[in-house]
């Protein structure tokens, strides 16, 4: 069992367990379906956990277990919030991020095998009355920003899949990705032609720099 703990600054009532987009991959991110009402929302490369409070700090633990390993014993007050299946789409590095607040403190990550699919169990403590306690604090002119909710996210290998592989074309030419979206650019034909010409020129230069294999014979 592997465990990493951090404090996440939750805002807009949600936070992310997101898979880092490695070099050579196109960003597959999609908007979560908040209208579904589920507490844990799945999109490619990301799990979104919905909180009962608009803005606060919450302890979060990322845990990985083996397929035959017992689940962690969490103790009193913990409840299973939701169970989802996660399929790695990049390199398998799972990180904790706030919606607009950046990574957890400290920044933590969990490496999961990309050749496996994973059952993800999300446990929570404090959610049942977190909003009520927050509102009661406001009535006392207290802005409760801590001690409202806690989360544990457990990844357990379940099935198998072909491991995602980086795109060789994207590895060779990072210009093909739009830096603002992480997705492939839609190139104008003139841009495509210019890119091809640049790649041919670079290939010719590399060829010219190679020593003559027949030199000295």
Protein model, in words:
The protein has 217 residues and is of the alpha+beta class. It folds into two domains: 2-160, Sandwich (Substrate Binding Domain Of DNAk, Chain A, domain 1); 168-209, no CATH class. Helix content is 17%, strand content 33%. It is built from three helices and ten strands; from the N terminus they run βββββββββαβαα. The protein has helices at 130-139, 168-172, 189-209, and strands at residues 2-10, 14-19, 40-43, 46-50, 56-64, 79-86, 93-98, 109-111, 116-125, 150-160. The strands form two sheets. The chain has a five-stranded mixed sheet, with no helix packed on it. Strands 3-4-2-7-8 form a five-stranded antiparallel sheet, with no helix packed on it. The relative contact order is 0.21.
The structural class is alpha+beta
Spatial strand sequence of the major β-sheet: 1-5-10-9-6
Number of strands: 10
Please give the CATH architecture of the largest domain.
Sandwich
Domain count:
2
The CATH topology of the largest domain turns out to be Substrate Binding Domain Of DNAk, Chain A, domain 1
Q: Which segments are poorly predicted (pLDDT under 50) over 5 or more consecutive residues?
A: none
What is the number of helical segments per DSSP (H or I, 4+ residues)?
3
Helix content: 10-25%
| First-last Cα distance | 61 Å
Which overall shape is indicated by the principal axes computed on the Cα atoms? elongated
Beta-strand share of residues: 25-35%
Order of helices and strands: EEEEEEEEEHEHH
CATH superfamily of the largest domain: Competence, DNA-entry nuclease inhibitor, ComJ
**Largest sheet report:** 5 strands, mixed
User: What is the CATH domain class of the largest domain?
Assistant: Mainly Beta
Report the mean per-residue pLDDT as an integer: 86
Q: How large is the radius of gyration?
A: 23 Å
């Amino acid at each position: 069992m592997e465990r990493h703990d951090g404090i996440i600054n939750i805002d807009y009532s949600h936070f992310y367990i997101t898979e880092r987009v490695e070099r050579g991959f196109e960003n597959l991110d999609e908007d979560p379906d908040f209208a579904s009402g589920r507490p844990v929302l799945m999109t490619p490369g990301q799990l979104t956990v919905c909180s009962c409070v608009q803005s606060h700090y919450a302890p979060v633990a990322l845990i990985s277990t083996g397929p035959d390993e017992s689940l962690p014993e969490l103790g009193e007050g913990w409840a299973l919030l939701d169970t989802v299946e996660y399929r790695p789409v990049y390199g398998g590095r799972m990180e904790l991020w706030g919606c607009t607040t950046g990574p957890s403190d400290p920044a933590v990550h969990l490496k999961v095998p990309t050749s496996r699919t994973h059952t993800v169990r999300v446990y929570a403590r404090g959610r049942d009355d977190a909003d009520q306690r927050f509102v009661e604090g406001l009535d006392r002119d207290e802005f409760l920003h801590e001690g409202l909710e806690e989360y544990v996210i457990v990844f357990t290998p379940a099935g198998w899949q072909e491991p995602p592989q980086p795109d060789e074309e994207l590895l060779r030419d990072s210009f093909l990705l739009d830096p603002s979206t992480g997705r492939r650019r839609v190139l104008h034909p003139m841009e495509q032609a210019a890119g091809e010409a640049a790649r041919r020129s670079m290939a010719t230069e590399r060829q010219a720099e190679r020593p003559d294999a027949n030199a000295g014979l």
